[in-house]
Design brief:
This protein is of the alpha+beta class. It is built from seven helices and nine strands, in the order E-E-H-E-H-H-E-E-H-E-E-E-E-H-H-H.
């Protein structure tokens, strides 16, 4: 099914683009939500008008949110979490947690759909992208540290982390099967 986009759709296209999408996606989401219309001959004649209106709307949104984007770039969020000895969390830091914390810091409602990161399941430093508009996507720094520890220990561990895999690579590993086979042969 060919759809003429009326509004910008993340990961699909900008207003005025003609996209070929799955029938169900077009019928059940794009058209009812007002993001697009069927690409008929009548709709094709309005492409220039739709593009011009979208460009005006996009530029005004970018101007409004430019100050907010600059403010968000400077934000660093820290989350205390319970974790095991290996650094894996006993839960996860989700996009909802990040959106709520960011909303409290910048006093602007950020929805969880705007936060572009997979759930965090380990201690350390991470970077998340916040989609304000299609053009404004500032990045924030997220630090997850163990409950009761200071944030500095996490940053120290992050600096030491690249050294550890090299040390592990030097030690030869024996598989369990070969180790069992060698033991009876030496006993005889």
């Amino acid at each position: 099914m060919k759809i003429l986009l009326v509004k910008d759709v993340y990961k699909l296209g900008r207003a005025g683009d003609i996209k070929k999408v799955a029938d169900g996606f077009g019928r059940n989401f794009l058209i009812p939500q007002g993001f697009g219309v069927l690409a008929t001959e009548g709709a094709m004649k309005q492409i220039q008008k739709i593009k011009a209106q979208a460009e005006i709307r996009r530029s005004s949104q970018n101007e409004e949110l430019k100050g907010l984007a600059d403010q968000i770039k400077e934000v660093s969020l820290t989350f205390p979490a319970k974790a095991g000895d290996t650094g894996k969390l006993y839960g996860s830091i989700t996009t909802q947690d990040i959106a709520t914390a960011l909303t409290e810091k910048v006093r602007y409602e950020v929805k969880r759909q705007q936060v572009d990161i997979q759930p965090i399941r380990a201690l350390g430093e991470f970077t998340a992208r916040i989609r304000l508009t299609m053009d404004l996507v500032p990045e924030i720094k997220i630090i997850v540290h163990r409950d009761g520890e200071s944030v500095e220990t996490v940053t120290e561990r992050a600096a030491e982390q690249p050294v550890e895999p090299a040390e592990k690579a030097e030690k030869p590993k024996k598989s369990g099967r070969k180790a069992k086979e060698e033991t009876p042969a030496t006993a005889e």
